[in-house]
C-alpha cells in the first residue's frame, strides 16, 4: 500500500505545500493552509491508447452540425436574456450571490415556470427542508405537480433521486452543502466541491439535462471553493442586490452559449421575485417642480441603458473636518470632483459638508457619472435647479475637461426615448462650459 504522509493544503483553493505556511501561495489568503493526510506519490505510468467509440470518433469540423446547442426558454424573460435565449440541454449553470439576496427564491420561481411547460423538475436542497421550500412555494405561487422536492446532503442519494424522478431540469441548492462518502473532508471543502460538481456535470452531459448549481460566496464576494468550479461549468451568473432595496441584478460572468454583457433586472416583492423588463423609472424621483442639487444621467448596465438620478447637498459644516458622505457612488471619485471644482472654479468647499447619493440604491461606478455628479454639486452650491429635460454623462479630467465615454450613441437614444431634450455629453467642453449649457451660468467663471 502507498505510504500516507502529512501534507498541507489551502481550504479555499486547494493549493498544496510540503510544509505549513501562513499564506497560501495561490489565492494569497492568510490562515487557510491546514494539515491533511495524503497518500504517497506514485511513479508515472504510460497509458496505452484505447480505440474511441464510433460516436466519439474525431471528425472534420465541416461535417459537424452547429445546431446542437439550441436554447429553450425558461419562461422567465429576464433570465433568458442573461443566458442568451434560454437554457441549453446538458448545460451546467453556476449561480452565486450574497446570503439572503434571493437566489433560492429566484430558482424556485424558475423551476415552477419550467414545470409549467410540461417538464419534470427536481429541486434538491441541502440547506432547507422540504416543508420550508413548500411554504415559500405557496407564498410565491410556485406550486406545480411536476416540481419534485428533495432535501439531501449526500451526493449518492441525490444521484438516486435523479435516477428515480428522471427530471428534465435539475436545481441543486447548494453545491457546498453536498458531500460524497468516497472523498475525505467535510462538505464545502475543495475536494468535496470538485467531486460533487464533477458528478453532477457528468450526469448533465451524459443525459442532456440542464443543471443549475447554487454557489456560496466568500467575504470578498468571490465564489467559495476551488477556482476549478468556475472552469467546469458552462455558465457562471452572479445575483446581486442591496438588502435595503428591492431591486436585484443578474449578471452573466461566463457563458459558453451566449454573450457575457447582459444584465437581468428583478424586483423582490412579498410575493417572490418579479421581472422588471423596463426599469427606466426605478432610479428617478421627479416631482412636479425641479429641485436644486439633482441631475439625471444614463448609465450602461450590460447592454442596457438605464436613467439614474444623482442628488447632492452642500451645507456649511459645524465641525473642523467637513463630512463627505456618499451613497451609491465612488467616494474617491467624488473627492476628485470636489478638488476639480474648488481648484478650477475658485469655489471654497473645505468648510462645507457634501452629501452625494443616487436614487433607488443603484450603484454608479463608471466614469460617465463624473459630469452628473459635478453638475448636481454645482446646482446645490448655487441653489439653482436643472430642468427636467436635461441629462448629462461624461468623464471629468483633473484639468477640468469633460471626456467622452463608451456607449455614447446608446445613451443618447435612451435619453431621447425618455424625453430628455438637452443632453450634455463628453467632448471638447470644459466643466464650466457644461455648467453653462445646463443653465447654471458661468459658475463664478474661472476657466
Secondary-structure element sequence? EEEHEHEHEHEHEHEEEEEEEHEHEEEHEH
Arrangement of strands in the largest sheet: 6-5-7-8-4-9-10-11-12
Number of domains: 3
Q: Tell how many strands the DSSP assignment holds.
A: 20
Mind telling me the CATH class of the largest domain? Answer: Alpha Beta
Helix content estimate: 10-25%
Shape: elongated
CATH architecture assignment of the largest domain: 3-Layer(aba) Sandwich
Describe the structure.
- Residues 353-447 are annotated as: Lon-protease-like.
- It comes from Leucobacter exalbidus.
- The protein starts with a strand and ends in a 10-residue tail after the last helix.
- Residues 38-44 have low confidence and may be disordered.
- The longest helix has 18 residues, at 190-207.
- The strands form five sheets. It has a nine-stranded mixed sheet with strand order 6-5-7-8-4-9-10-11-12, with helices on both faces.
- It is built from ten helices and 20 strands.
- It has three domains: 4-39; 70-277, 3-Layer(aba) Sandwich (Rossmann fold); 281-437, Ribosomal Protein S5, domain 2, CATH 3.30.230.10.
- The protein is 25% helix and 25% strand.
- The chain has 447 residues and is of the alpha/beta class.
- The protein has helices spanning 77-83, 103-116, 130-140, 155-165, 190-207, 228-232, 331-345, 370-382, 408-417, 431-437, and strands at 4-10, 16-17, 33-39, 92-97, 121-125, 147-151, 169-173, 211-215, 235-241, 247-255, 263-269, 272-275, 294-301, 304-316, 324-327, 352-358, 390-393, 395-396, 402-403, 422-425.
- Helix 7 (331-345) packs across helix 8 (370-382).
Amino acid at each position: 500500500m502507498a505510504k500516507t504522509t502529512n501534507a498541507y493544503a489551502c481550504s479555499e483553493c486547494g493549493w498544496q505545500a510540503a510544509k505549513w505556511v501562513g499564506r497560501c501561495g495561490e489565492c494569497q489568503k492568510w490562515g487557510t493552509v491546514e494539515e491533511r493526510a495524503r497518500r504517497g506519490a506514485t511513479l508515472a505510468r504510460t497509458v496505452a491508447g484505447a480505440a474511441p467509440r464510433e460516436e466519439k470518433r474525431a471528425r472534420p469540423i465541416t461535417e459537424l452540425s452547429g445546431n446542437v446547442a439550441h436554447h429553450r426558454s425558461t419562461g422567465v424573460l429576464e433570465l433568458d436574456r442573461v443566458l442568451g435565449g434560454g437554457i441549453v440541454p446538458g448545460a451546467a449553470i453556476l449561480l452565486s450571490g450574497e446570503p439572503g439576496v434571493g437566489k433560492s427564491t429566484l430558482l424556485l420561481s424558475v423551476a415552477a415556470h419550467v414545470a409549467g411547460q410540461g417538464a419534470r423538475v427536481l429541486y434538491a436542497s441541502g440547506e432547507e427542508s422540504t416543508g420550508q421550500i413548500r411554504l415559500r412555494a405557496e407564498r410565491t405561487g410556485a406550486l406545480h405537480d411536476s416540481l419534485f422536492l428533495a432535501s439531501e446532503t449526500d451526493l449518492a442519494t441525490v444521484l438516486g433521486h435523479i435516477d428515480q424522478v428522471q427530471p428534465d431540469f435539475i436545481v441543486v441548492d447548494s453545491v457546498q452543502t453536498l458531500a460524497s462518502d468516497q472523498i475525505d473532508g467535510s462538505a464545502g471543502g475543495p475536494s468535496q466541491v470538485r467531486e460533487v460538481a464533477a458528478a453532477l456535470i457528468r450526469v448533465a452531459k451524459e443525459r442532456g439535462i440542464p443543471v443549475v448549481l447554487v454557489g456560496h460566496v466568500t467575504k470578498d464576494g468571490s465564489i467559495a471553493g476551488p477556482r476549478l468550479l468556475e472552469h467546469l461549468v458552462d455558465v457562471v451568473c452572479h445575483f446581486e442586490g442591496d438588502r435595503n432595496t428591492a431591486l436585484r441584478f443578474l449578471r452573466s460572468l461566463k457563458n459558453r452559449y451566449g454573450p457575457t454583457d447582459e444584465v437581468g433586472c428583478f424586483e423582490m416583492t412579498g410575493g417572490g421575485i418579479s421581472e422588471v423588463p423596463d426599469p427606466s423609472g426605478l432610479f428617478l424621483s421627479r416631482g412636479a417642480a425641479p429641485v436644486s442639487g439633482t441631475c439625471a444621467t444614463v448609465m450602461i448596465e450590460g447592454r442596457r441603458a438605464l436613467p439614474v438620478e444623482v442628488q447632492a447637498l452642500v451645507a456649511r459644516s459645524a465641525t473642523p473636518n467637513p463630512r463627505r458622505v456618499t451613497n451609491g457612488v465612488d467616494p474617491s471619485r467624488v473627492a476628485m470632483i470636489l478638488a476639480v471644482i474648488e481648484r478650477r472654479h475658485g469655489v471654497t468647499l473645505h468648510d462645507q459638508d457634501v452629501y452625494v447619493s443616487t436614487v433607488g440604491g443603484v450603484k454608479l461606478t463608471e466614469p460617465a457619472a463624473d459630469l452628473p455628479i459635478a453638475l448636481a454639486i454645482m446646482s446645490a452650491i448655487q441653489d439653482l435647479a436643472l430642468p427636467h429635460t436635461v441629462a448629462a454623462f461624461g468623464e471629468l479630467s483633473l484639468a477640468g475637461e469633460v471626456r467622452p465615454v463608451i456607449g455614447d450613441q446608446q445613451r443618447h437614444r435612451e435619453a431621447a426615448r425618455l424625453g430628455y431634450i438637452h443632453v450634455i455629453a463628453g467632448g471638447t467642453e470644459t466643466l464650466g462650459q457644461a455648467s453653462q449649457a445646463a443653465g447654471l451660468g458661468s459658475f463664478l467663471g474661472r476657466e
